[in-house]
Amino acid sequence: MEDALAYLLELRLRCRGNPDARALVDRCLALLAQAERADGEELQRIEAEIETLRTELAARFGPPGSTARH
Hints:
The protein has 70 residues and is mainly alpha-helical. It contains three helices and no strands. It has one domain (2-59). It is globular and about 35 Å long.
C-alpha cells in the first residue's frame, strides 16, 4: 500500500496543472485511505467504486494497456 501511496502522490505532483487529472488522483488517494481502515462490507463498497472508476477511465481513454496496476 505504501508503494501505491508514493506513486499517487508523485502522480499528483506531475499533474498539478491539470485539474481533471488531479481530481482523478485525489479520488484514488481517498479510496486508498478508506481501504486502509475498512471492514469487509466497506471494502466491497470500495471495490465497487474502483470498478466504476475503471469503467469511466476505459470509456474516456480506451482499455488499459500492458502497464502494471498499483
